[in-house]
Amino acid sequence: MNVANKKYIRQLSMKSMKAARTRNLIAILAIALTALLFTSLFTVLLSINHSVQQANFRQTGGWAHGTFKYLTHEQFDEIKTDPLINQYGLRRFVGTPDGVPFNKSHVEIGYSDAMQAHWMYCNPGEGRLPAEGTNEAATDTRVLELLGIEPVLGNKFTMTFDVDGIEITETFVLSGWWKYDEAIVANHVLIPHSRAQAIFDQVGIGSGIGKDGMTGSWNMDVMLGSSLHIEQDLNEILTNYGYQNESRSLGDNYIQIGVNWGYTGSQLADNIDPITVIAIIGLLLIIVFTGYLIIYNVFQISVSNDIRFYGLLKTIGTTGRQLRRIIRQQALVLSIIGIPLGLLTGYWIGIKLTPVILSRLNGVVEDAVSASPLIFIGSALFALFTVMISCRRPGRMAARVSPIEAVRYSEGTAYNKTIRKAQSGASLPGMAWANLGRNRSKTAITVASLSLAVLLLNMTVTFTNGFDMDKYLANVVSDFIVADSSYFQTGNFWGGDRALSEEVLSSLESQSGVEAGGRVYGKSSPVEEFVTEDYYRALYGKWNDKEALDRAVTFTEKNEEGLLAERVQLYGMERYVLDKLRVLQGDLSKLHEPGGRYVAAVYSDDDYGNAKMDSHWAKLGDTVTLRYVEKYEYYDPKSGKILDPDNIPDDQPYRHRAKNYQDIDYQVAALIIIPHSLSYRYYGTDEFIMNDQRFIQDSGTSNIMYYACDVSDERTGDMEAFLYDLTNKQMPQLDYESKSTYAAEFDSFRNMFLMLGGVLSFIIGLVGVLNFLNAILTGIITRRRELAMLQSIGMTGKQLKAMLTWEGLYYALGAVAVSLLLSIAAGPLLSNVLASMFWFFTYRFTVLPILSVAPIFTVLGIVVPLTVYRVVSKRSVVERLRETE
Amino acid sequence: MTILQTRNLKKIYGAGENAVHALAGVNLQVEKGEFVAVVGTSGSGKSTLLHMLGGLDRPTNGTVTVDGKDIFSLKDEELTIFRRRKIGFVFQNYNLVPVLNVYENIVLPIQLDGNSPDAAYVESIIETLGLKSKLQNLPNNLSGGQQQRVAIARALAAKPAIILADEPTGNLDSKTSQDVLGLLKITSQKFVQTIVMITHNEEIAQLADRIVRIEDGLIVAR
After folding, report:
1. Which of A220, A246, A271, A662 is the most buried (most CB within 10 A)?
2. Residues of A with CB under 8 A from a CB of B
3. Which of the residues in chain A have pLDDT under 70?
4. Which residues have C-beta within 8 Å of that of residue A728, sequence separation ≥ 6?
């Protein structure tokens, strides 16, 4: 039967809610704190995602969804009207300057319309884009700096650049400039369309496309309806007009497209690792649990205090379902107030935390804070979910109440003991203890809620304490390493062209305070070793199928013994660096001899420093033949015909083999592990180390890859300053690494965790304290009469306060004890998990945070009950005695 | 020997037009060992009088002397201590501490005073009131009559100068009321206790040595 009584239930719900001011306040705060925790978490997560995406856009040079490349004017006009295209922008490439001072930068001169310029971050902070029909140009501060031009509007500058193979020199008037962003690969000089067309006319391109297939062409950047299926949309657009991008050879209806991988490559879900997923789920669960503990407790206490009211309602005919609805509605109303509060403060905390984390992620812009509505929707839903599961049991309790029992119910009744064995009589601590036993679930939840915060804090400190600087720096064996900046960048390969010059070295070596130092020469000529077929197959089997492997084995050059030639990586090290190597077997003393032909074979290890003994084939005492190749020859493997190296046909397979070379035998004197900071810093082929003299003599090259040195402690600061100046001002192509940069990196990494854990513990601590306050408050308020009675039979105010203080202390110190026990119990487990997640982690047991929280909790345990009692005791004993529920 | 005396006791709640004269100048004298019943209708001021006698509330005017001591000359804290030593209360709704067992409830006032109970004395009270088998029970496991007997034992345990009973049988059926009052009377005689009992029930009042009537805050007959 469906009766239209919802309105009355709602009225009843709202009226009974008004009677519970304190509960409402605490519930709202609890809900707000829960929402706050969710919001901060989501803000941080989505901001990281957002900023990774932003960083990707900068790398790709813009945030347009996609590009139709190298169009003719007609094609451009044809395609731009497609309904799938929301917005489009035009760019016509003119040319690039490659002489000094632009030899180290990628600068492009071209025309971009306002839309396209905006999409590639060309937004003049000062001035504007160049006007049509003028000789204006806009560019960034980097280009101006290279030109030596002050960023002042109206300044003239002249550039010489290559337009489709023809050198052009033009003078422009600065109409606007924007700040250089080092994350963006290309620097742009934007000129008006009229000027671009004039240049095209001048070099003979006119309205066509240059010989390079690029200059003068029309490029269209587009924004589509959605970033989810960019490639599909672009292809659909092409098909609409009879174009394709399958192959140029299919006909001249081929149009090249570009998809901005910034959109596809930055989906959080795609590149997230399982540990992060577990951590995020763990955090979500902790927050739900924290919220549950307090919101449940607040409603549970409130329902048990109002149980007579619910009993009365039931007596007069309210059904259990309706009682549940009353409670649910109250929870909803409180959520409507609490959740927005939490969303706002949580977002604020989130945007404050985000930069701390982002600064730890390499190459990510730090100002990218997400304001995605997902943050708020997600947080609100999670908070609501927490509220709803929290008020389910209290709702059931209200629904289950028997009208008869409810009238007789008081807090003590839930207490199912009927006998108490004590014969010695009651003491104040004993009474306080017994009072906590009245509502066990309330006591347990309050203690759990307080413990959770302490436990988290302790875990955070244990975790960050365990970050072992010694382990972290174990691979950083030199105080300073100086090299070309590319050496330090991931994704760069050493080829010998970026060697350190002798002048730089002599100035480095002559720095005061340098106690010891050494050069390392990197390989810059082809060198081969000879390996067995099995080894070769094991090496390449990971990436190739059987067929490809067979073919490779067949055609790879072999020596007389039938061993296969394989590229090899060499180091020529001065003694200082040799001594920094970790010797697994043998010793390095033979390598110290300038004349001997000895090498050390480089083995690799895992993060924990365990050597992988299968990572190299060479064993101690083995003879290694290295082939220094002066010249290769190319041949057709089928016919055996020698091919002209300058004119190798694309379409047929060819092979190469050493033509002029020198084979030298070495003996393996040691098996070693090279610290990562002293290595090539990328994985390549098998590596051998020899001393510097041997390397120079045998390879005939002497390109210095890096210089490493140790500096006396008191001179470290000077050296740091010298290198900073050298690498930033005098020779910006150089860079350096110091032990202190690693140490600083380590510290900031640790501080990030400390701060995140600290903030989390603090907020959860607030929740715990709120729960505690509520427990004490309701405990005192519902016992007003009982306390008055105790006073009437002779308990002094002092004794009463002492009893209440004992209760508070039991809660607070109970929480300390519980977290202490749990920490001790969970310690070994935690240590194993963390040590396996972070190689630089050393478990160090600590309960110091718990012990330092203990005094704070003691004070809380005393102050909270006393303050609450002070408020309650304003009314006289008689008034309180007379009070009826 | 006079154990309790009030002089011109006045209590006014509120002020001005809303002023309620709960007590309008009560003069009452109780001798040691006497069992006095104060009878009055609801709102007559009898409960207010009892609160004043027990030092739970301070009068607007007048004095209360218990065992030769003007109790309102004492500070709150001192008054509480005086109360637990000299005055035992028995309430209509028993007011036992739910988390303490029967024995603990009985000796609570003594222990609050920092003393150990006089074991033989407490033993004989317990025996007289028939609570021997219930000592370890918690209050919620007792009947109303049993709870009230515990309350009486508690009131007696500290050997007070005077016992104040506020409608001690108000929540009990008539048979149990008779039992409880009988016990109250017997024990007071046995342990030479003075009792002032408030009731609106004339029949119950008849058990007392003396009946005092109160109407509109004034004693009307002795």
Report:
1. A220
2. 410-413, 415, 417-423, 425-427, 431, 434-435, 437-438, 785-786, 789-799, 876-878, 881
3. 1-4, 103-104, 182-183, 248-250, 264-273, 360-368, 404-418, 421-426, 490-492, 543, 648-653, 882-885
4. none
Complete DSSP assignment for A799-842: HHHHHHHHHHHHHHHHHHHHHHHHHHHHHHHHHHHHHHH-TTB-
Span A301-315, pLDDT tens digits: 888 888 878 887 777
CA-to-CA dists, residue A712 to A344, A474, A479, A514, A735, angstroms: 52, 19, 9, 6, 21
Please tell me the distance from the alpha carbon of residue A723 to that of residue A731, in angstroms, as a whole number: 10
Residue B192: name the closest of B169, B166, B149, B160 by CA.
B160
Nearest-Å Rg of the Cα atoms of chain B is 17
Beta bridge partners of A244: A254
Q: Are strands A564-567 and A611-612 parallel, antiparallel or unpaired?
A: unpaired
Considering only CB atoms, which chain A residues are within 8 Å of B85? 794
Q: Distance between CA A761 and CA A489 in Å, rounded? A: 37
A431 → closest Cβ in B76, B83, B99: B99
Query: What is the reported pLDDT for A425?
Result: 63
Neighbouring residues of A830: CB distance < 8 A, sequence distance ≥ 6 = A459, A462, A843
pLDDT for the residue numbered A414 = 46
pLDDT over 70, % of chain B = 99
A530 dihedral zone (left: phi>0; alpha: psi -120 to 50; beta): beta
Can you tell me which residue has the tokens 């393996």? A668
Contact check, Cβ <8 Å, B111/A427: yes
- Strands B35-39 and A655-673 come out as unpaired
**Shortest distance, CA A439 to any CA of chain B (angstroms):** 11
Q: Lowest mean pLDDT: which of A482-496, A580-594, B72-86, B88-102? A: A482-496
**Cα separation of A334 and A34, whole Å?**
13
Task: Write out pLDDT tens, residues B155-202.
Answer: 888 888 899 998 888 878 888 888 888 888 888 888 888 999 998 888
Any idea which residue has 């007070």 for tokens? B160
Structure tokens at A443: 């006591």
Give the integer Cα–Cα distance in Å for A836 and A704. 37
Can you give the pLDDT at residue A411? 47
* CA–CA distance, B62 with B52 (Å, rounded to integer): 10
CA–CA gap between residue B171 and residue B142 (Å, rounded): 14
Per-residue model confidence (pLDDT) at position A768 = 87
> Number of C-alpha atoms within 13 angstroms, CB side, residue A183?
19
Contacts of A632 (CB under 8 A, 6+ apart): A526, A645, A656, A657, A658, A659
What ipTM does the predicted assembly reach? 0.78
Determine the distance in angstroms separating the CA of B70 from the nearest CA of chain A, rounded to an integer: 18
Does B94 contact A at CB distance below 8 Å? Answer: no
Mutation choice for B interface testing from A417, A792, A804, A879 by most B CBs within 10 A: A792
Instruction: Return the axis-axis angle of helices B174-190 and B144-157, rounded to nearest 10°.
Output: 20
CA distances (Å), A245 to each of A220, A234, A242, in order? 15, 10, 10
- pLDDT number for residue A412: 46
The residue type at A505 = L
Radius of gyration of chain A (CA): 37
- How far, in Å, are A582, A590, A847 from residue A586 at the CA level? 11, 10, 45
CA atoms within 13 A on the CB side of A398: 28
One-character DSSP codes across A434-463: HHHTTTHHHHHHHHHHHHHHHHHHHHHHHH
- Determine contact, residues A626/A688, Cβ cutoff 8 Å: yes
Taking an 8 Å cut-off on Cβ atoms, the answer to whether B99 and A434 are in contact is yes
Mean pLDDT across chain B? 87
